[in-house]
Amino acid sequence: MGWILVVAVAWLFLLVLAVAILRSAAEADRAAERRRQEPRPRPATSERRRRAARAAVIVVAVPLAGATLGARDADAVGCKTARAASQMPAPSATLCLINHQRRAHGLASLVGNARLGRAATLHAWDMIHRGYFAHTSPDGIGFAERLRRAGYIRGCTSWAVGETLAWGSGTESSPWSRVAAWMHSPPHRAVLLGATYREAGIAVLNGTPGMGPRGFTYVGEFGRRHC
User: Fold this and answer.
1) pTM over 0.70
2) Which of 67, 93, 99, 199 pairs as cysteine with 113 (C-beta 3.0–4.6 A)?
């Protein structure tokens, strides 16, 4: 009889333990359900403002990432012909910055010339697509011949012309950085500040001779003619 009593006590203990476990599980389920039904607290006002500010920065930054001019190109505002540097196409901003340098050195501003601009654009395109970077093309065409073919010096009795080239990527691809680089190079500086020149054509094309589509290629054509 003794072992029967031991078994009965063991079964009774297990039964009580099982009931306690089931009761605890039910209470946990009810607590979880109450938490799901309770409204979540709204974030504090300062936190909501911080989130809104972060969103506004992202929205504002998207157009700047694809803009033609960088933040440092604000110097172009100093040009009398510039409306706002951040609104200007890269060729116009480049010429604007060059004229800013010329006026600072007591020289006359250059005016844009469509034929010089056409010659500059064709040469920039040719360098990008044929993969070279030089004033003379692989087939021996120099910039004076390019200007003649563009109609700038054809039939003229006298003329003076010059050319500057540049390419860059990232922060080194903006009009500000390219004009600054030209001004720090004595041969290029001499062209930009050439007292003889009165007209210019600037081309800025997406793509480079050395890095493919990353970056921009710059060509500046400068001249004066008597026709």
Assistant:
1) no
2) 199
Q: What whole-number distance in Å separates Cα of residue 119 and Cα of residue 124?
A: 9
Residue 152 tokens read as: 């700038």
User: How many other β-carbons are positioned within 10 Å of the β-carbon of residue 60?
Assistant: 9
CA distance 84 to 190: 27
Contacts of 173 (CB under 8 A, 6+ apart): 167, 215, 216
pLDDT tens, position by position, 2-25: 544 444 444 444 444 444 444 544
CA–CA dist 67, 44 (Å, integer): 36
157 contacts 183 by C-beta, under 8 angstroms:
no
> Which amino acid, one-letter code, is at 70?
G
DSSP string of 96-162, one letter each residue: HHHHHHHHHTT-PPPEE-HHHHHHHHHHHHHHHHHT--SSS-TTS--HHHHHHHTTSSTT-SEEEEE
